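R.M. (postdoc): so does anyone remember the format we settled on? I'll just put the structure tokens first.
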């Protein structure tokens, strides 16, 4: 492990991933654990992670549980060692899809349900201004459209998804109407 951490770029990657994690709403130590496992060429046990990142065992345990809940880290067993070891998903597309699915489940699904209930509650009520009813309805429709788009894209084969993403705004040329080029 020390050889990996002797590389300045590895330490920089781990530190930066921790900083970015906080921007994405993930605890810094959780993101650093993920970064270390992602760069590691072998499964690591919790004590190795604690030592490498100078983190408390409780932080590492909590982080590993969270990363496993996102399904981007999994527990593996190493022959001859009774401790649990951990590896990170290294397929970036698979990691992206797992993270997106979990964020949708935790954030979008409850929001769309809440907005639907709210839209139904204010529908036709005279004591709620028209613009409020319309804006809640539009927000519900927008998030519904977004989650529908996500469901459609999630089911695309990976090569198609890669081609689609590489097209970027060039996809507009395939759509009717004005091009953005």
């Amino acid at each position: 492990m020390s050889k990996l951490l002797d590389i300045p770029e590895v330490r920089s990657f781990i530190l930066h991933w921790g900083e970015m994690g906080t921007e994405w709403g993930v605890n810094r130590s959780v993101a650093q654990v993920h970064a270390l496992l992602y760069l590691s060429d072998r499964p690591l046990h919790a004590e190795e992670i604690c030592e490498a990142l100078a983190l408390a065992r409780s932080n590492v345990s909590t982080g590993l549980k969270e990363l496993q809940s996102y399904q981007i880290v999994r527990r593996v067993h190493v022959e001859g060692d009774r401790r649990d070891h951990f590896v990170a998903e290294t397929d970036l597309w698979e990691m992206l899809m797992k993270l997106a699915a979990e964020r949708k489940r935790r954030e979008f699904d409850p929001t769309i349900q809440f907005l639907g209930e709210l839209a139904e509650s204010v529908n036709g009520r005279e004591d709620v201004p028209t613009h409020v009813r319309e804006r809640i309805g539009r927000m519900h429709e927008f998030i519904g459209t977004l989650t529908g788009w996500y469901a459609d894209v999630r089911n695309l084969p990976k090569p198609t998804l890669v081609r689609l993403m590489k097209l970027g705004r060039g996809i507009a040329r395939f759509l009717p109407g004005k091009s953005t080029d």
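R.M.: ...and that's the designed sequence above, right after the tokens. Also worth knowing: The chain has eight helices and three strands. The two ends are 49 Å apart (CA to CA).
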